[in-house]
Amino acid sequence: MNIQSIIGTDFAPMPIKRILIVDDLKVNFLLVKALLQKWGFETVWAENGFSAIELIESGQFFDAVIMDYNMPEIDGLQATIIIKKIQPELIVISHSTYTDTPLFDRSNAPFDDYLPKPIKSQNLKEILHKYC
């Protein structure tokens, strides 16, 4: 399977927006980055929740954050709680294998939306159209 078969070729570019991708696995970042860049988005990678928090605290602007849920040191839930205290209006989308399982409790989660893994380009595009 090649990357073209995953990201497809049927989408028109979207306006340039800046997205922070938070994932401890570089391969996950690269896949999301490939989709977003194809659609005209600028991407920044944070390989853990602490790095994401530092980027937000530094005043860097992002239109949205795509946040992995299960990461070492600080998970996506805890990182999002802190990020929302710093910048409550920032859109944070949970990106995880857990988002569609009973293990994932959405009732008190601070995420604005949920994107299950493995990623599907149509799902990502629909969610980004809601917010960006």
Beta-strand percent range: 15-25%
Q: What is the helix fraction of residues, given as a range? A: 25-40%
Which fold name corresponds to the CATH topology? Rossmann fold
Write down the oligomeric state. Answer: single chain
Q: Distance between termini? A: 30 Å
Q: Give the CATH architecture.
A: 3-Layer(aba) Sandwich
The number of domains is 1
Q: What is the CATH top level name?
A: Alpha Beta
Please give the count of helices. 5
How would a textbook summarize the main sheet? 5 strands, parallel
Please state the average pLDDT score: 87
Output the strand order for the largest sheet.
2-1-3-4-5
Based on DSSP secondary structure assignment, what is the total number of beta strands? 5
Structural class category: alpha/beta
N-to-C order of helices and strands:
HEHEHEHEEH
The global form is globular
Name the CATH homologous superfamily. Response regulator
Which regions are unreliable across 5 or more consecutive residues at pLDDT < 50? none
Radius of gyration: 14 Å
What does this structure look like?
The chain has 132 residues and is of the alpha/beta class. It has a single domain (15-131), classed as Response regulator (Rossmann fold), CATH 3.40.50. Helices cover 37% and strands 19% of the residues. It is built from five helices and five strands, in the order H-E-H-E-H-E-H-E-E-H. It has helices at 3-7, 26-38, 49-57, 76-86, 121-131; strands at 18-22, 42-46, 64-68, 91-96, 113-116. It has a five-stranded parallel beta sheet with strand order 2-1-3-4-5, sandwiched between helices. Helix 3 (49-57) runs parallel beside helix 4. The longest helix has 13 residues, at 26-38. The N and C termini lie far apart (30 Å). The model has no long low-confidence stretch (mean pLDDT 87).
